[in-house]
Specification:
The chain has helices at 2-12, 15-24, 31-35, 42-54, 77-84, 94-110, and strands spanning 29-30, 58-63, 66-71. It has 111 residues and is α+β, with helices and mostly antiparallel strands. It is globular, with a radius of gyration of 14 Å.
């Protein structure tokens, strides 16, 4: 469980990876479409996607010649349960988490 939590929190620690998760809330996306809004190479985005995949937050599959990314929303369940163990946190509401991410990313893009 500890390795899974470490991977989840490490993946969520990076703003680019949080932005990718927010994008994938809408629908599955091709890797090239995920990379499009970022000012970094496709190789750099692929590294971020690999970290998200290892953490179980997304899955990737090849459809024809295109690699697609899909959000795995249940992957946050372990982190949510762990945080609830402290008694200071409410169960993770994924809709509220989405609004939080949009707020965070919206304020980053405005500066």
């Amino acid at each position: 469980m500890s390795e899974t939590l470490d991977a989840t929190f490490a993946a969520l620690a990076d703003p680019t990876r949080r932005a990718i998760l927010t994008m994938l809330l809408e629908d599955d996306m091709a890797v090239t479409d995920v990379a499009d809004p970022f000012e970094m190479s496709l190789a750099a985005i692929s590294k971020h996607l690999a970290i998200l995949t290892r953490a179980g937050l997304i899955s990737q599959e090849k459809r024809g010649r295109v690699k697609w990314c899909k959000l795995e929303p249940d992957a946050l369940r372990g982190a949510s349960v762990w945080m609830q163990g402290f008694g200071q946190f409410e169960p993770v509401n994924l809709d509220a988490f989405e609004r939080f991410l949009e707020g965070e990313l919206g304020s980053d893009t405005a500066t």
